[in-house]
Write a structure and sequence with these properties.
Helix content is 22%, strand content 10%. By secondary structure, the chain is of the alpha/beta class.
């Protein structure tokens, strides 16, 4: 048995068995993830607009940043008072309707305390004809006597007396009916409320009320109402018109 000859394996295309390379074991396949810096969202091109080219446009902010939105900014506007509106220069200042509103409101606050004038005396011997009529008598400081009547196309009876007086001072005024709020303001502003007596109570408001005098655009009555002289004449007439037509009390 020791003398038996060993038969070598047959050759292959790689050579004899003694010189064939051994096959190496296959290396395990490992997956290495790319670094985080290499992971980027695809770029989105922003189309150009009429305001700026695409290169200079600001990118839109993210929808959610992780922080709560800032609270809304509240701007507190100081209310425009009469003193603020009346900062006028020495020359007349043209005011818009918006600027006139606070001035008119401030004036009405003053007028509200002047809507009554005179005292009642039911024994006055003064009367007129007609349910809507009214009579008035006035005596000037120089003894001149004046009479006035209500006329829907002209004045209230007491305003008729004031128009006739033309700036002269009264010693007494007698009226058949209590002065309306507008007449009361004028009488108070002229310093005549203390010399007024009326027979019947019950104020009546008439839309036909007129300022004393033929010229209803006479801005001197704006000064009587308390409007500052530095305001332009157009604004004065606007305030006079509101006084005459607006029921503010």
């Amino acid at each position: 048995m020791t003398g038996r000859r060993r038969i070598p394996p047959p050759p292959t295309r790689f050579g004899p068995p003694s010189v064939q390379p051994k096959q190496a074991a296959a290396a395990p396949i490992r997956h290495t993830p790319p670094p985080m810096a290499a992971i980027r969202a695809p770029a989105v091109a922003i189309p150009p607009t009429k305001f700026a080219p695409a290169a200079t446009q600001a990118k839109p902010a993210p929808r959610f940043s992780g922080l709560p939105p800032p609270p809304p900014r509240v701007v507190q506007m100081s209310s425009m008072g009469e003193a603020e509106v009346r900062r006028y220069s020495s020359r007349q200042r043209v005011l818009s309707t918006t600027a006139i509103d606070p001035i008119f409101r401030a004036l009405t606050d003053e007028w509200d305390d002047l809507t009554s004038a005179g005292t009642q005396d039911s024994d006055l011997e003064i009367a007129s004809k007609g349910g809507h009529s009214c009579a008035a008598k006035g005596v000037l400081d120089d003894g001149t006597e004046l009479t006035g009547t209500f006329d829907s196309d002209s004045y209230h009876a007491e305003m008729s007396l004031v128009a006739q007086a033309a700036g002269r001072t009264f010693s007494s005024i007698q009226i058949e009916k209590e002065p309306c709020p507008r007449c009361a303001v004028i009488l108070n502003k002229l310093g005549l409320a203390g010399v007024v007596t009326y027979k019947k109570t019950g104020q009546k408001d008439y839309p036909t009320w007129r300022f004393p005098g033929e010229d209803q655009e006479d801005v001197s009555w704006a000064g009587v109402l308390g409007v500052e002289s530095s305001i332009d004449d157009a604004a004065k007439r606007d305030i006079m018109k509101r006084f005459r037509t607006t029921k503010w009390w």
